[in-house]
Amino acid sequence: MLRRISNSTILTVLLFATALGASAQSGEYLSFTPYSIFGVGDIVQQGSPYNRGMGGVGIATRNVRYLNNLNPASVTARDSLSVLMDFSVTNNNTIYRQNIDGNRYSSANNNTNIGSIGFSTPVFRNCAAMIGVTPYAAQGYSYLSKETDPTVIARNGNISYYDYGQGSMYKVYLGGGYAITKSLSVGAEADYIFGNYNKYFTEVFGTTGYNTAQDSYEMKLNAFTGKFGLQYEQRLGKEWTLGVGATYSLKSNFHGTVAYSHLSVGTAETITVSSKVDTLGNNAGGVQMAPELGIGISLSYLDKFRAEFNYIRSDWTKSGMDAADGFSNSGSRTPFMAGVRESYRAGVEYIPNMYDLRRRWKRYTYRAGAYYNNEYYKVAGNEINSFGITLGATIPVYQWYNGLTFSVDLGQRGRLEDTLIRERYVKVSVGVNLHDLWFLRYHYN
């Protein structure tokens, strides 16, 4: 196939119109970003609307009212015999813009997804468990670009390139935590990640002397991994509490298959020119999920105020994605390479008076936060960054800690320079927080 990188056609004109409908019919987690063409796609920020309203923090969070799946050690923070459940829905609205040779291109996309679902319960004294499912990564892109090299055009005529892909991966987690002391808790989590991707790279020739050529990849992936967590709290006088937390996710190999086909599509028939199936496993040179280290520090004032900062780092440069069929974008004209993923997150939470029985609004929880991310890939040698501010709130419902949680994320990824694509987005999440007391032993006089 004719694949020649041209600086003027890197990440060129986008076609977003049909992605939402196609993904909705498949029942997959919907994501639409041109940067998802590489690797495992667009890695979804973990956590519930509770975490997202504070910039995505949670590594050092210990809160008895919410389920926090960012650190398995946090599951021990609970009232005695309490059971927690969390369910969320997200809506993403994105505007895309790109400048090429003085021309400006733009498009937009909107999609709605079911977010994370989690459940936690006490096991025995000082020990608790949690289980749930959450999106891990998603892929959704559609490109159109045209050949600009005059030598290639003179020899073969006008050529159009269409790149299209979709799919998603989910994470099922089972974790537990143990409170060694009132101040120190540890936790561990087992994760199973699975999903499917489909990628298509098509060349359409403007002359009748050539057939349309297409490369396709059908990827069925899974991986087993684990996470360890630690949290410690230190009282600073009677009113303030300092908290620290850390998590470490293990490196893991991707398993499954990558089926490749090269087709020649003519007016009369479609011919499979070549095909192969690669089996992923523990062999040297396989594709790996990068290990991840996260640290957090928090400061709390009674039941009124809490601030937290998190730093997360994972090195994907040795993942093997740059050279792996299906993971690399070898069929595309856009040069990607793996990089180091880093995230800086900060957030605050304020409750005027959670015990006020007269003025309901004083029992609302208000949140705000900010974040800055370096993505795990580079485009034509350029780092891709994202940043944003977040707002959130929880409205108490009925009794105990039941409530509705809302969060809004206003952010940007990419930039207009170097013919890159800039995404400006608004992500709205709504979560239902359920709380109840189980295992009660009634006494009668």
Kindly describe this structure:
It is a single chain. The strands form 2 sheets. The chain has a 14-stranded antiparallel barrel with strand order 2-3-4-5-6-7-8-13-14-16-17-18-19-20. With 445 residues, it is mostly beta strands. It has one domain (11-437): Porin (Beta Barrel). The protein contains 3 helices and 20 strands. Helix content is 4%, strand content 58%.
Topology:
Layout: H1 19-26, E1 42-43, H2 49-52, E2 82-100, E3 103-124, E4 127-146, H3 150-156, E5 159-179, E6 184-205, E7 212-236, E8 240-249, E9 252-253, E10 255-265, E11 270-280, E12 288-289, E13 292-301, E14 305-315, E15 336-338, E16 340-350, E17 365-379, E18 382-396, E19 403-413, E20 421-437
Antiparallel strand pairs: 1-4, 2-3, 2-20, 3-4, 4-5, 5-6, 6-7, 7-8, 7-10, 8-13, 9-12, 10-11, 13-14, 14-16, 15-17, 16-17, 17-18, 18-19, 19-20
Properties at a glance:
58% strand; 3 helices; disordered N terminus; 445 residues; mainly beta; Porin; 14-stranded antiparallel β-barrel
Percent in helix: under 10%
CATH domain class name: Mainly Beta
Number of strands: 20
Strand order of the largest sheet: 2-3-4-5-6-7-8-13-14-16-17-18-19-20
Beta-strand residue percentage? over 45%
Oligomer: single chain
Mean pLDDT: 86
Structural class: mainly beta
Annotated CATH homologous superfamily? Outer membrane protein transport protein (OMPP1/FadL/TodX)
Shape: elongated
Written as H for each helix and E for each strand, in order along the chain, the element string is: HEHEEEHEEEEEEEEEEEEEEEE
**Rg from alpha-carbon coordinates:** 24 Å
Give a short account of the largest sheet: 14 strands, antiparallel, barrel
CATH architecture term: Beta Barrel
Uncertain residue segments: 1-26
Task: Please name the CATH topology.
Answer: Porin
For the termini, the CA-CA separation is: 85 Å
